[in-house]
């Protein structure tokens, strides 16, 4: 009988000890997909105690996605970080699977949101190093509200920002960001509503010079070259394009209905305008390692804006500081002001005098 009493007393003591331990966790209510999900917690467990923290999918049925083991620190806290890259938007939960922990808070619901489709990057994903990268695109945000851009290198070191870049009433933006060399740069975008998403631009080494002798085949250039400037119908943009060998594709940025003009290999002027304002205008031609002059301007009068010209299988694209010779004959010169003729006023005076003489003669009769 005494053994039974001692056993029951020991069992009650053990339950009391376990009930005295507590675990409380905290996690954000909402989080953008791609951002790290940080779960923090406090506990009365001893230093070094392992704590299981589990991320579950609540989209349809509960299923385990990731499990982390954290250890209690000296200040009685623990921390677990989950990678949300590639997860679908929806409801998730994080939990410390434990029973009999009294008034502990061992579960939190987290809503993952995905806004990555709200941003469109029109600048090329691969660029040659020239001291900077071009970042241009469109974001679905309040007009003229701006967007925050942050650029980090592949080692997570800060390269640019966070800094705000202006957007127009259509959500368009463009900025040149100084970079330190060839690398994969991750650009993060944030607006007034929070984190939007990220994009990666790969910067290669400096563009190699390509020369070809007679009969030599030149390998097409894989990276995309680009240049940009402001253009209007009255003041079009002119670009100098040094092509590679083989098929060449030229295309503009979007948001304005652009027109592309260039001369083909036979010297015939080609005019391209097929895409409208929501898609980049595109021209395809055969490259022979020579220079092609390109003219770009808005289809409609009274519109101006920054235009990017991108090129696939080209060595370089630069803005022409003057009207290239092939386009000089096609540009309509502004007519000089006409000089007023002095003959017309004289004829008017003579006519008035003759009328007065005729009227005087009629009165005398």
Write a structural description.
- With 365 residues, the protein is mainly beta.
- 12% of the residues lie in helices and 46% in strands.
- It contains three helices and 25 strands.
- It has a five-stranded mixed β-sheet with strand order 2-8-7-4-5, with no helix packed on it. A five-stranded mixed β-sheet has the order 10-16-15-12-13, with no helix packed on it.
- Strand 20 (258-263) and strand 21 (269-272) form a beta hairpin.
- The model is unreliable at 11-18, 212-219 and 333-342 (pLDDT under 50).
Describe the secondary-structure layout.
Layout: H1 2-20, E1 23-26, E2 30-32, E3 37-43, E4 50-57, E5 63-71, E6 77-82, E7 90-95, E8 107-113, E9 119-121, E10 126-128, E11 132-139, E12 147-152, E13 158-165, E14 172-178, E15 183-191, E16 194-204, E17 224-232, E18 237-243, E19 245-252, E20 258-263, E21 269-272, E22 282-288, E23 291-298, E24 304-312, E25 314-319, H2 325-328, H3 343-364
Parallel strand pairs: 2-8, 10-16
Antiparallel strand pairs: 1-3, 3-6, 4-5, 4-7, 7-8, 9-11, 11-14, 12-13, 12-15, 15-16, 17-24, 18-23, 18-25, 19-22, 19-24, 20-21, 20-23
Terminal CA distance reads 163 Å
The rough form would be described as elongated
Main pleated sheet: 5 strands, mixed
Low-confidence runs: 11-18, 212-219, 333-342
How large, in whole angstroms, is the Cα Rg?
36 Å
Number of helices: 3
Strand/helix succession: HEEEEEEEEEEEEEEEEEEEEEEEEEHH
According to DSSP, the number of beta strands is: 25
Strand content: over 45%
Quaternary form: single chain
Task: Please estimate the helix content.
Answer: 10-25%
> Spatial order of the strands in the main sheet?
2-8-7-4-5
**Mean of all residue-level pLDDT scores:** 79
> Structural class of the helices, strands and pairings?
mainly beta
